[in-house]
Design brief:
Blueprint lengths: L3 H19 L14 E6 L9 H10 L4 E6 L5 H11 L2 E7 L12 H21 L11 E4 L10 H13 L2 H7 L2 E5 L9 H15 L4 E6 H4 L5 H8 L3 E6 L4 H7 L16 H11 L3 E5 L6 H15 L2
Parallel strand pairs: 1-2, 1-8, 2-3, 3-4, 4-5, 5-6, 6-7, 7-8
Helix pairs in contact: 1-2, 1-3, 2-3, 5-7, 7-9, 9-11
């Protein structure tokens, strides 16, 4: 157990550096100006600090109000409670940590069951770590990659198997008031907003409630579509935003993965169109950075770039 002096030091450090992270905005509480979009980041982006409390304080000082943890993971209730006190950073959800290794559409039923167990654990961890049920539903979200399509896994089969798998955890998610947010990644699945909407609607029909939604990754979509089109088509199915930059021009010259080699507010992504689409939707919720992180200085720069891209 760390000493009281150490916790007090972390609180003082966070308060002292917040002005750097927020610039002219001052404190987060004083700078909202009715801002509808709140900034978060992934826990793996925080390079500084060793204890969770130190990492949370760094993120808060850099200008972030929320963080997403991985689940299942080795986080303990004790260290998480201390980290929250040391930073006032909100745990807004978790990322399913097994969905790539144990995809819910794997042809082997035993592997699918392992993936399902991981998703169930993520839902329970989200319930334990985030805001209490009934307080802030938008802070009780599990990010899920639902399926992976490849030459040996046909698209239609991936749809059927993943729907069947996810359906098994919907009663638990509904009982605990935890939302499941499907993310668009380069997994060759749900490649258009109409498919994405139909997939979400089918799952919510099985749940009998709006339990499943979309985790729209703005940078990922820009490779093969227009984010503003997805925002318009998905509408209130959008639970959360992932924020990163992408350059089609760079990808065209150097390969598709090179497209991510730009900062959030650089490249050729039309952030003005994104802002307009989000404003029309009247989106209120979290936007989570998903880029290469670092120390306080690096995270502060990311926070400011998100401000510019999203008009905060």
């Amino acid at each position: 157990m760390r000493s009281i002096d150490r916790r007090e030091f972390m609180l003082a450090a966070a308060a002292g550096t917040a002005a750097i992270g927020l610039g002219a905005q001052g404190s987060l509480a004083a700078s909202t100006r009715d801002v509808r979009i709140r900034k978060a980041l992934k826990i793996g982006m925080i390079a500084g600090g060793t204890a969770l409390a130190e990492k949370f304080a760094i993120a808060r000082a850099a200008g972030f109000a929320g963080v997403e943890l991985d689940a299942p993971s080795g986080v303990t209730a004790e260290e998480l409670a201390e980290a929250k006190v040391a930073s006032d950073l909100r745990v807004i959800g978790v990322v399913d940590s097994v969905h790539w290794a144990k995809p819910l559409n794997h042809p082997d039923e035993a592997v699918r069951e392992e993936g399902l167990a991981g998703l169930e654990r993520a839902v329970r961890d989200c319930d334990a770590w985030c805001e209490p049920a009934g307080v802030r539903t938008d802070e009780r979200t599990v990010l899920l990659v639902p399926a992976v399509v490849n030459q040996s896994m046909p698209y239609a089969e991936a749809w059927q198997l993943s729907i069947e798998s996810i359906a098994k955890v919907l009663p638990l998610a509904r009982e605990l008031d935890v939302r499941i947010a499907i993310e668009n990644v380069w997994n060759e699945f749900l490649l258009s907003p109409r498919e994405a909407a139909a997939y979400v609607d089918e799952l919510n029909g099985l749940a009998g409630a709006k339990v499943v939604g979309w985790y729209l990754d703005i940078g990922n979509i820009w490779r093969y579509g227009w984010p503003e089109h997805w925002i318009s088509a998905l509408g209130t199915r959008i639970f959360r935003l992932d924020i990163k930059g992408y350059s089609r021009a760079k990808a065209g010259k150097e390969g598709k993965w090179a497209g991510f080699g730009v900062e959030i507010d650089e490249g050729d992504l039309d952030w003005a169109a994104v802002r307009t689409a989000l404003a029309k939707l009247e989106y209120t919720g979290w936007a989570t950075a998903e880029v290469g992180g670092g120390d306080l200085e690096r995270l502060t720069d990311i926070s400011h770039r998100m401000d510019r891209a999203l008009g905060l």
